[in-house]
């Protein structure tokens, strides 16, 4: 099983920004589609962004235009740049490629 380690979460005010990272142990990282999910306080876990091996991206309507997914294949790292954060973005954020990491908490509150 691939090890995925997320980081970069924290407490931020509405309108603020955060950048999440996910480091993968998989040496074949560059071959796979990578995704970000989030689990909200009501325990709904939803896909919010995906990037394929060629850099093509897809976003959930709720984050499109505010969040940007990217990857550094040399570093085996997936990123999620989150701008214009809203209280409803509060969730545990997970990266995914066949399995989930342990997640990183993002809390948006004044």
Describe the structure.
The chain is mainly β and 110 residues long. It contains no helices and ten strands. The strands form two sheets. A six-stranded mixed β-sheet has the order 2-10-9-4-5-6, with no helix packed on it. A four-stranded antiparallel β-sheet has the order 1-3-8-7, with no helix packed on it. The model has no long low-confidence stretch (mean pLDDT 96).
- Please compute the radius of gyration using only Cα atoms: 13 Å
Beta-strand residue percentage: over 45%
Q: Element order, helices and strands?
A: EEEEEEEEEE
- Major beta-sheet overview: 6 strands, mixed
> Counting H and I runs of at least 4 residues, what is the number of helices?
0
What does the average pLDDT come to?
Answer: 96
Kindly state the percentage of residues in helix: under 10%
Shape by Cα distribution: globular
Provide the structure class. Answer: mainly beta
Spatial sequence of strands, sheet with the most strands: 2-10-9-4-5-6
Give the end-to-end Cα distance, rounded to a whole number of Å. Answer: 39 Å
Which residues sit in consecutive blocks of at least 5 with pLDDT less than 50? none
Number of strands: 10
